[in-house]
Write a structure and sequence with these properties.
2 copies of one chain form a homodimer. Chain A is α/β, with parallel strands linked by helices. Chain A contains 12 helices and 12 strands. Chain A binds a DNA duplex (16 and 16 nucleotides) through α1, α2 and α4.
DNA sequence: CTGTTAGCGCTTTCAG
DNA sequence: CTGAAAGCGCTAACAG
């Protein structure tokens, strides 16, 4: 294997008969280069297959064109993929690449992950969690432009993007209402996480907007697993005035609800309509009948995070200290995935 | 925000009263430094909270301590997470970090991803696919130490690590045989991919080893989805000599098989034992009864890939041109996940 | 064992 | 508009 020596900017300069400065200028799209010179240079670049060495650029310019992605989620959830994909694709289209570190949520690891990112001069950082929640970030993260994904800090000192759980809960409920249902049960998760609080609020708001009185006996809380959904649904099925529809906190609970409903000899959606949340393909698409559910904006959050990060970056090098405005706290809409359970 | 000036190796040298070379030496664990000097230097480093700048190190030493991870899979499968996690964690423990690029399998994108990796001086590359298959890699990948993950190139010119599908098929079948079953059906996938070919071979081998004649009427092929499993199972259930156990190509098919079995009023595992493949938590753990299945070595493949890559890297800088031995083609075992369906 | 000295490849003044 | 020159922070080769 011939050790093909690295082609440097010097080689291009020589080949094109110009100075290295000029080559650098065309490389960086600097305006003050005559069209003619630029053409020559570009040709040399193409001919010698020159590719600038990132480390040298970073050393000199202090910008790496790398974004750090720190998360606690890779292992745990199939959602992770979409978030990362959204982030990575968006970054790629801007000529950036992603450093990925999975911390499993270990604070010490998070801190050193941030340090490592800083050592590598990342242009910005994305801190993502595996489910929508309040987060505590390592303090050193403030040294780098950062956006929080699927989480937020209580003091809103960092921009963040999360799903709009309230409107998701509202929408899901409205689908049921629009189908003519009036007795709509809600099987909620037990832990007081944002999704748990907000989805049920959306549910109540939708009810209120359609003059349906809220009936507390139609709601219950359980672990958001098939088993929890099964148990909760079973109980609900014995309600003196059985609901005609049920909104489940997530698809896993819906899976359990399906089982309870089936065991009772009832049909979905004729006897009871079911709607879930999360659109976990493996469950939702494969249940019978297919589960109508709400899709979380994973991909979109990944996109937003990177776009926002890039927008915040100092356009040129030293100038324009950002206007110190309050960090955006963005909510992205969840979308309805219609199948056959309503 | 006070723009805290970067602490450089110069500052440390000055602070510790030594030359920069010495500082660099302790940083890189070079042996020829007196314990005393080293202590002083380390103290200065700690005191000034010095952290070396990666770009400068890379520029000078030509090693970035970064590994590239190119894949077509992020979006598509929940398996991806485990592979990435295995790779990332292993890399992290060796002080490396991962560049992640998802190509969706687009060859042109793959090629430029490799170029970008090279520009960034990655120490090595992992090329991972979303399911075990033969791959065609961009030719420029040969410029960097690379290991293939969950795929291989036909000419075996690159090291690769894949699951041992044959032994997995064997094991799964043996579990059934050990439970006393003799009429064991096999619901295979239709596409001629390695898993499809090898799992059934393992199945046949296990049968043969236990003096059970292979009965072709007990095997069938369908799309590896719940629907395919459902249909195939339904047919099988009308077999004049009904099987007492069924080995499904994957958990999705098993899911369909469950439905067919239930509709027939049969019980799992009393009337028919079922074993799947993939251990897709969402399905396998939540089916009732819990599905016994084979776990693919995702995490382990990630670990292996990184370890192998690191082992191949030139230990020092220029020396030791690797012995040009044939690239390893490794198979990693699948493991049994016992639940209640057998 | 350790200080000094070249650069690594590139960007960015500073003069023309 | 463009060439020349000065480093960015670090490592490695070379003298001591």
């Amino acid at each position: 294997m011939t050790r093909k020596a690295k082609v440097t900017i010097q080689d291009i300069a020589r080949h094109a008969g110009v100075g290295v400065g000029t080559v650098s200028r065309v490389l960086n799209g600097h305006p003050s280069v005559s069209a003619e010179t630029e053409a020559t240079v570009r040709q040399s670049i193409a001919q010698l297959e020159y590719r600038p060495m990132a480390a040298a650029q970073t050393l000199r310019s202090r910008r790496s064109n790398v974004l750090g992605f720190i998360t606690d989620m890779i292992a745990t959830t199939p959602h992770a993929g979409q978030i990362i994909r959204g982030a990575q694709e968006t970054a790629w289209h801007s000529g950036k690449v992603l450093f990925l570190v999975n911390t499993e949520g270990d604070p010490e690891l998070e801190r050193s992950a941030v340090d490592v990112m800083i050592d590598r001069q990342v242009d910005g950082l994305i801190y993502a969690t595996m489910f929508h929640r309040s987060a505590t970030v390592p303090s050193n993260i403030y040294a780098v432009p950062t956006v929080l994904l699927d989480c937020y800090v209580e003091d809103a000192s960092l921009p963040s993007v999360v799903p709009d759980e309230f409107s998701g809960g509202y929408q899901a409920t409205k689908v049921l209402i629009d189908r003519g249902h009036r007795r709509i049960a809600f099987l909620n998760h037990v832990e007081p996480i944002p999704a748990q609080r907000l989805r049920v609020q959306g549910y109540q708001a939708a009810l209120a907007d359609h003059d349906i009185p809220f009936d507390a006996t139609l709601t219950s809380e359980a672990w958001s697993e098939p088993r929890g959904g099964y148990d909760a649904m079973k109980t609900l099925l014995h309600h003196p005035q059985r609901p005609t529809a049920v909104f489940c906190f997530n698809d896993r609970m819906a899976m359990g609800a399906y089982e309870a409903i089936r065991q009772q000899g009832l049909r979905i959606p004729q006897d009871i309509a079911v709607i879930g949340y999360d659109n976990q393909e493996l469950i939702a698409a494969n249940l019978w009948p297919g589960l109508t559910t709400m899709q979380l904006p994973h991909y979109e959050m990944g996109v937003w995070a990177v776009e926002h990060l890039l927008a915040e970056l100092p356009a040129t090098s030293e100038k324009g200290d950002s206007a110190e405005r309050a960090p955006l706290q963005v909510k992205l809409a969840c979308s309805l995935v219609l199948r056959d359970s309503v």
